[in-house]
Specification:
Layout lengths: L9 E4 L5 H12 L3 E5 L4 H15 L3 E4 L6 H15 L4 E4 L14 H29 L2 E6 L12 H20 L5 E8 L5 H14 L3 H12 L8 H12 L10 E4 L7
Parallel strand pairs: 1-2, 1-4, 2-3, 4-5, 5-6, 6-7
Helix pairs in contact: 1-8, 3-4, 4-5, 6-7
Length: 264
């Protein structure tokens, strides 16, 4: 029986009931990690999802529906992780929301919500995860930033501010843990064909009278030179690398996987 790299370790992946978070959770489960899922959705569908992943990869799985904008619920999720799994060894901060508007039209409550979920939640999870990781002298914190942690786009003030902030938090966390077995890094994806992005493709197809493929090509052509979407599986493989012995001295990076977006 082969020993998987993350056997006996537990990964908490926020926003992992679909899209990028689910792709990363599956990649970590494939390496033997127990997975604590987090996210909203139909309770029966989520239960089936996490149980199926557990059976497929032979790991323990569970779900906690903490609202990532509420520090008290995040704390309750960590207490649950401690009870169920004995703590969190790999923390993937993936939960995120988006709102698009010019700054002068941007509703203040939407700004607060984007900052709370895309940035502040990662601070709360990190501060709760670090004591246990330092005690074991092993841990991996992976923050899902975005190309928007490295460059800006019009009408995305809150998202870009939050993702730049997440890259900054990554660097500080890496420096504070530099002489320990804990690392912290950020992944900065370009366009990924998540349900959220497919909606933008559908809107574009409807508005411009395009087929699905043509609408995808038009969306990609604006920003992503490869003309191809990044996949959740590719992002999952990068997360696995960060968790591997080869990633032990990768500390505080903002690693873009963006089809050349930020090379322009």
């Amino acid at each position: 029986m082969k020993t998987s790299m993350l056997s006996g370790k537990t990964a908490l992946v926020t926003g992992s009931t679909s899209g990028i978070g689910l792709g990363i959770a599956r990649s970590l489960a494939e390496q033997g990690a127990n997975i604590l899922f987090n996210g909203f959705g139909d309770a029966i569908a989520i239960e089936k999802l996490y149980q199926d992943v557990g059976v497929e990869f032979g790991v323990e799985t569970a779900h906690h529906n903490a609202d990532m904008s509420k520090p008290a619920e995040i704390a309750a999720m960590f207490a649950f992780a401690q009870d169920k799994f004995g703590g969190v060894d790999v923390l993937v901060n993936n939960a995120g929301i988006q709102h698009v508007a010019n700054i002068e039209d941007f509703p203040a409550e939407r700004w607060d919500a984007v900052i709370a979920i895309n940035l502040s939640s990662a601070f709360h999870t990190t501060r709760l995860a670090l004591p246990g990781m330092k005690q074991k002298n092993w841990g991996r914190i992976i923050n899902l930033a975005s190309v928007h942690g490295l460059v800006g786009s019009a009408q995305k003030s809150a998202y870009v501010a939050a993702k730049h902030g997440l890259v900054g938090l990554t660097k500080v966390t890496a420096l504070e843990t530099a002489q320990t077995g804990v690392t912290c890094n950020a992944i900065c994806p370009g366009w990924v064909l998540t349900p959220l992005v497919q909606k933008q493709v559908d809107d574009r197809a409807a508005k411009e009278g395009l087929g699905n493929d043509a609408a995808k090509k038009a969306l990609l052509a604006e920003k992503q030179p490869s003309g191809e979407f990044v996949t959740p599986e590719e992002l999952g493989a990068l997360a696995v690398f960060f968790c591997s012995p080869a990633g032990a001295q990768v500390r505080g990076v903002a690693w873009n996987m963006d089809g050349g977006w930020t090379a322009q």
